[in-house]
Amino acid sequence: MHTSLPDFRMPHDEQVQLAAEGFRLLADPTRIKILWALMQGESSVACLAELVGAAPTAVSQHLAKLRLAGLVRGRREGTFVYYSAADVHVQRLLAEALFHADHHDSGTTAHAPGRPVGRTGDAHEQHRA
Known about the structure:
The structure is a single chain. By secondary structure, the protein is mainly alpha-helical. It has helices at 13-26, 29-40, 45-52, 56-68, 88-106, 122-128, and strands at residues 43-44, 72-77, 80-85. The protein has a single domain, classed as Arc Repressor Mutant, subunit A (Orthogonal Bundle), CATH 1.10.10. A hairpin with a 2-residue loop joins strand 2 and strand 3. Helix 2 (29-40) packs across helix 5 (88-106), helix 3 (45-52) crosses helix 4 and helix 3 (45-52) packs antiparallel against helix 6 (122-128).
């Protein structure tokens, strides 16, 4: 059946493994909140901890795993490290996952695909400076 489709190609095993690992790491509410905050802009561990309601040590552990998976990156400035989403692909993946959750939950298309379902608010802005 699929052999009759001219453009059909199964992904390589390595691609599938990497994608599954990325989804596995995203299967945690705190990590989703961290990535959402990072989609709004660069942030420190302390700011992220406040935004997601977790201890800074827990946020650091989550960030280390996300960094190893290539989902976030860090930029050192003196003794501080500022984190950001790795690239637009991570942002799109998370935005689509949240859009899907919102769409599935409400049964409507209240938000356009790829558009954020909300912003983190003023707390994040205070900590970015």
